[in-house]
Amino acid sequence: MNSKKWNTVATGILYFIAGVMILILAFLLIFILWNGLPHVSWHFLTTPARSFQTGGGIGIQLFNSFYLLFLAMLISIPISIGAGIYLSEYAKQNWLTSLIRTSIDILSSLPSIVVGLFGFLVFSIQAGLGFSILSGALALTVFNLPLLTRNVEESLNSISESQREAGLALGLSKWETVLRIIIPEALPGIVTGMILGAGRVFGEAAALIYTAGQSAPALDFTNWNPFYIASPLNPLRPAETLAVHIWKINSEGIMPDAAQVSAGASAVLIIAVLIFNFGARFISSRVYGKMTGTK
Amino acid sequence: MQNYSADDKFIRELDPKDHEISISTEDLHVFYGESEAIHGVSLPFERFKITALIGASGSGKSTYLRSLNRMNDNIDGTRVTGKIMYRDLDINSQNINVYEMRKHIGMVFQRPNPFSKSIYDNITFAPKRNGVRDKETLDELVETTLKQAALWDQVKDGLGQSALSLSGGQQQRLCIARAIAMKPDILLLDEPASALDPISTSTVEDTLLALKDRYTIIIVTHNMQQAARISDYTAFFHLGNVLEFDETSNVFQRPKITATEDYVSGRFG
């Protein structure tokens, strides 16, 4: 065979592999949505779960998922941005920074159940936070922080060195250059990483089973005082999330419509994660246009 | 390339009575870690003149240029010793505010590096950070600097468009406009035309010739015709030494040092 034919064959094989990937993904998505969407209704999204009867919803779990996500990102975004800026812009190449980088890489590959058990021991037991949203948010921070930090660092690293020189040569300080030139240019990458991280956190179950807990006590949506025990904002109450809920009803759910609730909740979870992913693309292109004046 | 003795050199003295010196170096050494890239260079740069730094790749001309506004400070393991005298001040000493100093000594780099902002914002960015807030002053600054950089006529109707949409030559002239918007005394240019096509190169050269009335210009170039065309003085760098410094016409027509003669006549480099 000549090289032209080989090229055709190789291209064909690559197309085939890519096609298989897309088919698997499409099959999963269609399967979950096909089974789940018929059970999703406004009633399903807003009512509390029921343990023994049919007709339970996922209202509290859905709220918990978003609140937990919010708290986890609130803690991890500032830390990851600070750490990423340090590693990319200020850290010198020596044994200490290479130790930090290696640690981050190892942390980011920890299985999430290990993070969950660590969170259980440290936050729930030692720190006395018990099964609470706060324990869960801290565990998710441990789970998410390494990836976010690496993302910030890599987004900043991808900005050409000549941009830093341009800033410094104009008499700007290093911090001004980083803050006003490098970060704005890296922002689309940073934002994309943050939103994808949010999607990952939103679907996380294993790290939360022993930290945020597996129960979703009734909430009083009329009282938003964070110190009130049934307040939706109380960070010290146990909070089963959507992903944990799916895991739980599949392993020990005894309500008659467990299969339907699980399917519906899975569909909602998938849709939320999809929204995060498409949102990441949309927002990062908007941000880029805004920061750079190209649009 | 044959070996040329570093002792065999000719450095023209510029008498301060006849020549106003804008910046000069005394016995400047640059070390990258253990290796010495510049072996004690002493050069004067006359005000409102263009001085070209020429020499083969690796001769140290860019390294030397970058130490004049302390850009080498940012590279780990770099050490610069000796004096850089600017307005009776040794700007190579520790207690100098390098950020303040760089406002007086601007720089344009080899590859055009505009910020990914609009043309207008590229020029006004640094002045704004220095407290210029008045819209009219900024507008005027944009217009005068773009005119000085010979870019105004091409971009005046699209100041809001992204600087990245400009051609390479236009981007480089924008970078020159951005540098002079800080009203520096001295403009350092590190092979500003090497990434450009011949037509853009000649526009940039015209721009530099027009700028020399107001700025002291020091330019590193690989292109000997360019040095001959635009510069008043030429310094020939060889392996970290300056072997010859003289008026440009002398360097190119009556070089006093064999190495210079071999280089400008294209025998090596």
Automatic annotation (TrEMBL), chain A:
Question: Has the keyword Lipid metabolism been applied to this entry?
Answer: no
Single GO MF annotation: phosphate transmembrane transporter activity
A Pfam family that this protein carries is BPD_transp_1
Taken from the UniProt entry, a GO cellular component term is: plasma membrane
Domain ABC transmembrane type-1, chain residue ranges per copy: 62-280
Give GO BP annotations, semicolon-separated.
phosphate ion transmembrane transport
Q: Which UniProt keywords apply?
A: Cell membrane, Membrane, Transmembrane, Transmembrane helix, Transport
Question: Do the record's keywords include Coiled coil?
Answer: no
Location, primary (coarse class): membrane
InterPro entries assigned: MetI-like, MetI-like_sf, Phosphate_PstA
- Name its cellular compartments: Cell membrane
What is the membrane topology noted in the UniProt record heading this document? Multi-pass membrane protein
Membrane-spanning residues: 12-34, 66-87, 99-123, 261-283
- NCBIfam families membership: 3a0107s02c (TIGR00974)
Q: Which family does it belong to?
A: Belongs to the binding-protein-dependent transport system permease family. CysTW subfamily.
* Protein name as catalogued: Phosphate transport system permease protein PstA
Which species expresses this protein natively?
Agrilactobacillus composti DSM 18527 = JCM 14202
TrEMBL record, chain B:
Ligase found in the keyword field: no
Pfam families (UniProt xref): ABC_tran (PF00005)
Which InterPro entries does the entry link to?
Answer: AAA+_ATPase, ABC_transporter-like_ATP-bd, ABC_transporter-like_CS, P-loop_NTPase, PstB-like
Keyword annotations for this protein, in alphabetical order, are: ATP-binding, Cell membrane, Membrane, Nucleotide-binding, Phosphate transport, Translocase, Transport
Q: Where is the ABC transporter domain?
A: 23-264
Write out the GO biological process terms.
phosphate ion transmembrane transport
Which GO cellular component does the record give, naming just one?
membrane
Provide the protein name: Phosphate transporter ATP-binding protein
